[in-house]
């Protein structure tokens, strides 16, 4: 099984890159599952139903979220029926709408996609290790193919999570920091790991925001309104994961498309 995962879609710039390159990536790599993190897709904060449907129509099979899941209030109007969207599974059980995982049918196989949120320097959530342990035990009765988008701030928490579940989860790929890391690897027991897949959106901003606003905040330490940089060049970040028939990973490779890394057919 081959999985294509695209990192945090940021604003209109990110949507533009998905529209232009996701079909091309699917034609080039022929993934059986395409997963897109879209928690920043509408103006950098959350997602609405129009954009949710647009990203699915462009080729995404599942959309994952993160700590910005509730930033756009429009999500409350459709998340209950958004069967192809997963929000962090370790939000308070039974108290929030939406689902924390979904299962895709891929020919004769099934792929479970889980969204999990870290706790270090993040908004409060339940223990991701404990919640994921219970989920994996449940899902293993149905499939050995399990993908986790671990939305977290620190590399150490993401590494700890991947090592803890090495051999139990097919792939643990981090999101949230918007900067692709250079640590793609397959752990000894067969779990593919990447601390952060990176961002799809503005290439010349600062983690997607207009750099002038961010620099002003650092210089003056005064409250500054951050806005998505929609005026400059754009980038796409992702990764490709190959799984064996027993659900373990055999390869993970990163993808970048931008002015310095042009797409090649």
Q: How does this model look, in words?
A:
This protein has helices at residues 11-29, 49-57, 128-139, 155-164, 211-220, and strands at 2-6, 8-9, 33-37, 62-64, 85-86, 101-106, 109-117, 145-151, 171-175, 185-186, 192-194, 199-202, 234-243, 249-257. With 265 residues, the chain is of the alpha/beta class. The chain has one domain (2-257): 4-Layer Sandwich (Purple Acid Phosphatase, chain A, domain 2). Strands 1, 2, 3, 4, 5, 12, 13 and 14 form an eight-stranded mixed β-sheet that branches. Helix 2 (49-57) links the parallel strand 3 (33-37) and strand 4. The model has no long low-confidence stretch (mean pLDDT 96).
């Amino acid at each position: 099984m081959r999985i294509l995962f695209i990192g945090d879609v940021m604003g209109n710039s990110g949507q533009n890159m998905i529209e232009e390159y996701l079909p091309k990536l699917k034609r080039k790599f022929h993934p059986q599952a395409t997963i897109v993190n879209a928690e920043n897709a509408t103006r950098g904060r959350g997602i609405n139903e129009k954009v949710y449907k647009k990203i699915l129509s462009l080729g995404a099979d599942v959309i994952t979220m993160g700590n910005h899941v509730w930033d756009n209030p429009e999500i409350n109007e459709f998340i209950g029926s958004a069967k192809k969207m997963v929000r962090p599974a370790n939000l308070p059980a039974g108290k929030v709408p939406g689902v924390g995982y979904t299962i895709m049918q891929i020919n004769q196989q099934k792929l479970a996609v889980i969204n999990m949120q870290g706790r270090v320097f993040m908004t409060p959530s339940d223990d991701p290790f404990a919640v994921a342990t219970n989920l994996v035990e449940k899902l293993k009765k149905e499939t050995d193919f399990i993908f986790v988008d671990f939305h977290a701030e620190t590399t150490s928490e993401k590494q700890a999570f991947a090592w803890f579940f090495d051999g139990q989860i097919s792939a643990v790929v981090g999101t949230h920091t918007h900067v692709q890391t250079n640590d793609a690897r397959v752990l000894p027991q067969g779990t593919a790991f990447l601390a952060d897949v990176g961002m799809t959106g503005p290439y010349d901003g600062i983690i997607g925001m207009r750099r002038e606003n961010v620099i002003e905040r650092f210089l003056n330490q005064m409250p500054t309104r951050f806005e998505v940089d929609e005026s400059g060049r754009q980038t796409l970040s992702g990764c490709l994961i190959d799984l064996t028939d027993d659900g373990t990973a055999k390869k993970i490779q990163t993808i970048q498309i931008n002015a310095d890394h042009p797409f090649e057919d």
